[in-house]
Design goal:
118 residues; 6 helices; mainly alpha
């Protein structure tokens, strides 16, 4: 879990708000929603994290953190006991991951293997 948080911080430094747009005000709400979701996630408040990640995904589909949030959402479902929804979302991560998001595709594949017992 801690390694995911560290990787997220590194990801944000590399592809943080400055890479989203030239207008810093446009990325502030997205980052606020993302940071709120991550706080809930780190505190293992899975239901609240799930709701925030859903909000982020619905409102900010064109941001660099979309696939990251999708992975975190899948993990929330997994922790809440909805293995079927988690696997569906992990597959979506794999389908959507491109280039720099390949890390999340690898992580999603590992989670699927663990859930399915392979």
């Amino acid at each position: 879990m801690r390694s995911i948080a560290i990787l997220t911080v590194l990801f944000l430094f590399a592809f943080g708000p400055s890479s989203w747009s030239d207008d810093d005000d446009s990325s502030a709400p997205a980052l606020d929603t993302y940071n709120k979701a991550v706080r809930f996630y780190e505190e293992k408040h899975w239901e609240q994290a799930k709701d925030c990640f859903h909000q982020y995904l619905a409102e900010y589909s064109d941001t660099p953190l979309y696939v990251t949030c999708l992975y975190y959402l899948a993990y929330c479902y997994e922790q809440l006991g909805d293995q079927e929804q988690a696997v569906l979302l992990y597959h979506k991560v794999i389908d959507m991951a491109q280039g720099g998001d390949a890390f999340w595709a690898d992580m999603a594949q590992k989670r699927i293997y663990e859930i399915l017992g392979r």
